[in-house]
Specification:
This protein has 144 residues and is α+β, with helices and mostly antiparallel strands. Helix content is 35%, strand content 20%. The strands form two sheets. Strands 1-3-2 form a three-stranded antiparallel beta sheet. Zinc ion (ZN) binds next to loops.
Length: 144
């Protein structure tokens, strides 16, 4: 893929799923975000290389990062409402902040280096059975 040097881009998410990546790309583009998928070709042709290249990368125009992230959050929330728990089949998964020692360290680091934005660790948790996952389960067709 040709790199466009005219516009600086930032990778805001990686996907290991070609279909999800393209649906998100399409939805962002519909919202006026300039974005591209990188390494899409490699991943599609040779899935073994997925780890080597870090999956399909979603890169957006640097000036639109904030807007794109906000949209991604909206998509995620919308998607979350329709996600089925892979463990119990319930439809009650929410995103929660993980309370772990790592978070205390993160809090201290955030305090020490307050100019750095350190993301809180988030997990997706089923309210019915307590199942937790770091990635949104891709077990239905809500994105289609
Ligand atoms: Zn469950």
């Amino acid at each position: 893929m040709q790199r466009n040097n005219a516009v600086e881009t930032t990778i805001i998410r990686t996907f290991d799923n070609y279909i999800s990546a393209n649906i998100i790309l399409g939805r962002l583009q519909q919202s006026g975000i300039h974005c591209v998928l990188l390494d899409e070709y490699t991943v599609t042709i040779d899935p073994i290389l997925t780890n080597a290249v870090g999956g399909i990368k979603l890169a957006v125009d640097k000036e639109q990062v904030e807007q794109a992230l906000r949209l991604l959050n909206e998509f995620d929330e919308e998607y979350l409402r329709s996600v089925i728990c892979p463990n119990c089949g319930g439809n009650n998964i929410i995103q929660v902040s993980k309370q772990s020692p790592a978070n205390i360290i993160t809090a201290v680091l955030t305090w020490l280096f307050s100019s750095y934005a350190i993301a809180t660790e988030k997990v997706y948790q089923c309210q019915d059975c307590g199942y937790e996952t770091e990635k949104i389960p891709e077990n239905n067709t809500a994105y289609n």
